[in-house]
Design brief:
The protein has 8 helices and 9 strands. The protein is of the alpha+beta class. α2 packs parallel to α5 and α4 crosses α5.
Length: about 270
């Protein structure tokens, strides 16, 4: 599939709007966290929910990215709320690595600068819903935004089948990432290179491209001192980078500017 058609032709824009609402709801401060449920409305946008629970599919549209992120955030908030003060919960990899104790705060709906990032369309205008999918692109695809020296961090989930429990699990936070970016003249796409990243495995870099029209992202996470790399496929969204990682082995990724965390960006 041509990535330039993902937003322009294939999306159901009402689904995008609904998915955005779910993400905002998941990010609301003081929102009561409970087990995920499936309502009739959520079933009506079923493919993205099945993608999230399966954990081994790529994101085929911006709507899929938003809906997957909503469930990712809900599960992540549950884990962080019940994690011990010094240490990440439910980590099954790299048991001898000291960085298991790293927990990064996550942004709230009141701390991400949406009014700056999104050129929200006028309600009931001719392009109100169709413009919603890309209204963040002008700001967030700007090179000054991507390479302003700010730290990026976030989380990735592990495969639900890893321990046969069906439970979504997370490795320790990624942090320390800083991007440089350049525009590819012939396509208008953005080349992105992230350095300084650290997670529960070790130091890593990120290299990849963002489609200049749709925000579709393809990236590799390359460990510096290890023979390991993972592919990411996803989207640049108003909430940061949302992607799936891996092919036969994988999960979901959420990466954001740590300055967006209302409780601070410190690592415990």
């Amino acid at each position: 599939m041509n990535p330039r058609t993902l937003v322009e032709d294939d999306d159901d824009y009402s689904q995008i709007a609904f998915s955005l609402c779910l993400v905002m709801d998941a990010l609301l401060p003081n929102r009561k966290i409970g087990p995920a449920t499936t309502t009739t409305t959520e079933q009506s946008v079923g493919p993205a929910r099945r993608l999230f629970r399966g954990c081994l599919r790529t994101l085929d549209s911006a709507a899929d990215a938003y809906l997957a992120l909503a469930y990712f955030i809900r599960d992540l908030r549950t884990k962080l709320a019940t994690a011990p003060p010094q240490g990440a919960q439910n980590v099954s990899f790299h048991q001898n690595n000291q960085s298991l104790s790293r927990i990064l705060a996550i942004p709230g709906a009141d701390s991400i600068p949406f009014t700056y990032l999104m050129d929200l369309p006028v309600p009931f205008s001719d392009r109100d819903l169709s413009h919603l999918a890309t209204c963040h692109m002008r700001r967030m695809m700007d090179l000054t935004f991507l390479q302003d020296g700010a730290e990026w961090g976030g989380y990735y989930s592990l495969p639900t089948w890893y321990d046969h429990s069906g439970e979504v699990r997370f490795d320790p936070a990624m942090h320390g990432i800083r991007f440089t970016a350049s525009e590819l003249v012939h396509t208008g796409d953005i080349w992105l290179h992230g350095t300084g990243g650290i997670d529960g495995v070790g130091a890593f870099e990120l290299r990849g491209t963002i489609d200049g029209k749709t925000g579709a992202l393809r990236m590799e996470k390359i460990y510096v001192n290890l023979d390991g790399r993972w592919g990411w496929v996803g989207f640049l969204t108003p909430f940061g980078i949302t992607a799936s990682w891996g092919e036969q082995w994988g999960g979901w990724v959420w990466l954001y500017k740590t300055a967006w965390c209302s409780t601070g960006a410190s690592i415990s």
